[in-house]
Specification:
- This protein has helices spanning 2-12, 15-36, 54-59, 81-84, 170-173, 265-269, 362-365, 379-386; strands at residues 39-48, 50-52, 62-66, 72-80, 93-97, 106-112, 118-121, 125-145, 152-159, 163-169, 178-184, 192-197, 199-201, 214-215, 219-235, 238-239, 246-255, 258-263, 274-275, 280-281, 289-294, 304-305, 313-322, 324-330, 336-338, 344-348, 354-360, 376-378, 396-400, 410-411, 415-422.
- With 423 residues, it is of the alpha+beta class.
- The strands form 8 sheets. Strands 2, 3, 5, 6, 8, 10, 11, 13 and 14 form a 9-stranded mixed beta sheet that branches. Strands 9, 12, 15, 18, 19 and 22 form a 6-stranded mixed beta sheet that branches.
Length: 423
């Protein structure tokens, strides 16, 4: 009991002095701590603000866009130097809750960092633009750069889709007019098939490069057919016979004379020409006959025009000429007598010229003479055709004369009388 009283007296005696001593001890400890571990600051840049509750806007059919890079902050941290030395940027937390967005489009940024006495950012609000989320479809078009290789032509271009779904903020999506695929031909000699990147374009053809717009796909499978070429002639024919006194000699004008085709090499190798299978009718003609045809009706399958804009119409002119006639006098002495029966000779009877009428083009007839006709008779052939038997010396035969004329010249039949002699 006496011990307790002495202890109580010790505590209460000079109490204010003891409290002052305790305060001074704490103060001295703080001063010593400050001297040995003073407060310091550090600045961290490019701290990304974490966004919370973004799905709240998405559920309302809205999309947001952070403005002016306000989701990136610079933070200054104050803490004891011993703490400062251990800090890194990853220790700093900056959070903005999008559910707290104001009508003015601002969201408070909350900074936190354990062990820090103070933390201050270079700005305290996130600036956000909020719009309705819209979706629309745009057509996919293509353009080509460069050209295919020499001797080739660009064929069909096929995209595996021709429409693209895009979505995003209304103001951004409304800028998009269509989607574009750029095809680099670069001297291609064969068909190209590849996934090609899709670019969004406005109505002025300028690229719309917006991260806020999402595309259904970034690529489209594109097949570019590259075809070989070949120039082939066009041929035609006629049917019928011109009017009397007129002649068709095979002279035909076709315009154009040739056409350049496009197709795969194997197909083109099997096409030597294009034939107009419907003949030009020259029956009873007295003048040139002109006919027109649609060439596309006669193209082989798997071939097309090199020039897709080529006019299909083709003109075919069958030239009809008026004939003239000329009388040629043939002396019997120049007629060659051939194929006599064995043991016989022969000679023409009489010396009067044999007149023969030839008909044809004037240019052809001008070159015809009795000698150029090479008149001849084939005795053995005549005897056989006539069924003659018991041929004897002194027999007189009237035999048709063979005349050599060109294709476009006709000659009337003429005859010569010959007499047979025994050798």
């Amino acid at each position: 009991m006496k011990t307790l009283k002495r202890l109580g007296g010790f505590i209460t005696n000079n109490l204010w002095l003891k409290i002052l001593a305790l305060f001074l001890a704490v103060l001295i400890w703080v001063l010593v701590a400050q001297i040995n571990n003073p407060a310091s600051t550090v600045t961290f840049s490019n701290i990304k603000v974490t966004l919370l509750n973004a799905d709240t806007l998405e559920n309302e059919g809205k999309v947001y866009q952070v403005l002016d890079r306000t989701d990136v902050v610079k933070v200054t941290v104050k803490a004891p130097e011993s703490v400062i030395r251990t800090l890194t940027a990853s220790d700093v937390t900056a959070v903005a809750d999008l559910s707290e967005i104001t009508p003015q489009g601002t969201v408070p940024i909350v900074y936190t960092l354990d062990r820090a006495e103070n933390i201050v950012g270079d700005h305290d609000e996130l600036l956000v633009s909020v719009e309705d989320k819209v979706t629309k479809y745009v057509n996919i078009q293509y353009v080509t750069n460069g050209s295919v290789g020499e001797g080739c032509v660009l064929g069909k271009v096929n995209l595996d889709r021709n429409r693209l779904e895009i979505s995003g903020p209304r103001s951004d999506v409304d800028q998009v007019s269509y989607a574009m695929v750029v095809i680099d031909l670069d001297g291609a000699m064969k068909t190209i098939s590849a996934d090609m990147e899709i670019t969004l374009v406005d109505d002025s053809g300028i690229k719309v490069d917006k991260d806020t717009i999402s595309k259904q796909t970034d690529y489209v499978t594109t097949t570019v057919t590259v075809l070989s070429t070949k120039e082939v002639p066009i041929i035609a024919s006629v049917t019928g016979i011109p009017s009397g006194g007129y002649l068709y000699v095979g002279d035909m004008e076709i315009f154009p004379e040739t056409v350049s085709l496009a197709g795969d090499t194997a197909t083109l190798n099997l096409i030597p020409y294009i034939e107009i299978t419907d003949p030009v009718d020259i029956t009873g003609a007295r003048n040139d006959i002109i006919a027109t045809f649609d060439l596309s009706n006669y193209l082989p399958s798997n071939a097309s025009y090199e020039d897709p804009d080529l006019d299909d119409e083709i003109s075919v002119t069958a030239k009809i000429y008026r004939t003239v006639e000329k009388t040629i006098n043939i002396a019997p002495s120049i007629i060659s007598i051939t194929d006599l029966p064995s043991g016989f000779t022969a000679e023409a009877v009489g010396s009067d010229d044999i007149s023969v009428r030839v008909v044809g083009l004037e240019t052809d007839l001008n070159a015809i003479t009795a000698d150029s006709l090479s008149p001849s008779v084939d005795v053995a052939e005549y005897i056989e055709d006539a069924g003659l038997e018991n041929i004897k010396e002194g027999d007189v035969l009237t035999i048709p004369v063979n005349l050599r004329v060109s294709e476009n010249v006709t000659a009337d039949d003429c005859f010569v009388r010959i007499i047979l002699y025994k050798d």
